[in-house]
Design goal:
Elements (H helix, E strand, L loop, with lengths): L1 H22 L3 H10 L5 E5 L17 H6 L7 H16 L4 E5 L5 H4 L4 E4 L5 H7 L4 E6 L2 E6 L9 E3 L9 E11 L4 E8 L2 H10 L3 H8 L11 E10 L2 E12 L1
Parallel strand pairs: 1-2, 1-3, 3-8
Antiparallel strand pairs: 4-5, 5-6, 7-8, 7-9, 9-10
Helix pairs in contact: 4-7
């Protein structure tokens, strides 16, 4: 009987520990829950460089090689890295998804579907859906920055694209999850001003450590709430480095 009671006591402790562990908050799951629970497949809408001003439209008889080499048909490795992180997380839950090029998407494609928007100014839907929110992207010629509606004169979260790559020390990105009245569904944004920011945002949005850091800045409800966060991304020699949350908004 003594050994039986001991075994039962140890089993009870084990069950209690298991229940407590299951009750621990998982910030990644809390961010992704509205998309995972939606019955529709997730639409990953990724932007890519737009046709340069003054560039002639594609000729009807263009060759396969010339078609592939046009700038607007390229996707950077850093963007692919962000998409790979998102896809890897969705596959963990066997959540169906589709990857589309943002410029080919219509509002009907996004309507009432869970959506992940990848890249910033290269993605028309990122620009449109973030515009009413506190943090959003602004492009002025070759100077791009993240605008803060509460401090509209601030231009510190920016990238000056004509600047030599060797002199770039930081990029900036927006990560967010919110319900969009425009699409009628949950939206996650993974978007940098340049490619390093997008790559870092793609890692951030599936990282328990990074999202736990963001959750510490949140009011009651944590990352279950709608949120936006601005990330500063260290850049050394064109490579993506550490990420810091420099501003956030929860509602």
């Amino acid at each position: 009987p003594y050994y039986l009671l001991t075994a039962l006591a140890l089993a009870a402790v084990g069950v209690g520990f298991f229940i407590r562990s299951m009750r621990q908050r998982d910030p990644v799951m809390e961010v992704w829950a509205p998309l995972l629970s939606n019955p529709n497949p997730v639409l990953i809408s990724a932007g890519r460089p737009l046709q340069a001003a003054g560039e002639p439209p594609e000729a009807p008889n263009i060759s396969i090689a010339d078609h592939i080499l046009r700038p607007e048909f390229r996707v950077s490795i850093t963007t692919l890295d962000a998409i790979a992180n998102i896809v890897g997380y969705l596959k963990t839950f066997q959540k169906p998804f589709r990857i589309h090029e943002a410029n080919s998407n219509t509002l009907a494609d996004l309507h009432e579907r869970p959506v992940v928007l990848v890249t910033g100014n290269d993605n028309k839907w990122t620009v449109l859906l973030l515009k009413p929110l506190r943090f959003h992207f602004v492009q002025q010629g070759q100077f791009s920055y993240i605008d803060d509606e509460q401090n509209p004169a601030f231009r510190g979260w920016s990238v000056d694209f004509p600047k030599p790559l060797s002199e770039q020390t930081a990029d900036y990105a927006i990560v967010g999850r919110f319900y969009s009245p425009t699409t009628g569904g949950p939206v996650i944004v993974v978007a940098g001003i340049s490619s390093n920011g997008t790559e870092a945002a793609g890692e951030f949005i599936v990282s328990p450590k990074d999202l736990a850091m963001l959750e510490k800045l949140a009011p009651s409800g944590g990352v279950k709430r709608n949120f936006e966060a601005v990330l500063k991304v260290e850049v050394v020699g064109g490579n993506t480095g550490a990420t810091t949350v420099v501003a956030s908004q929860f509602w």
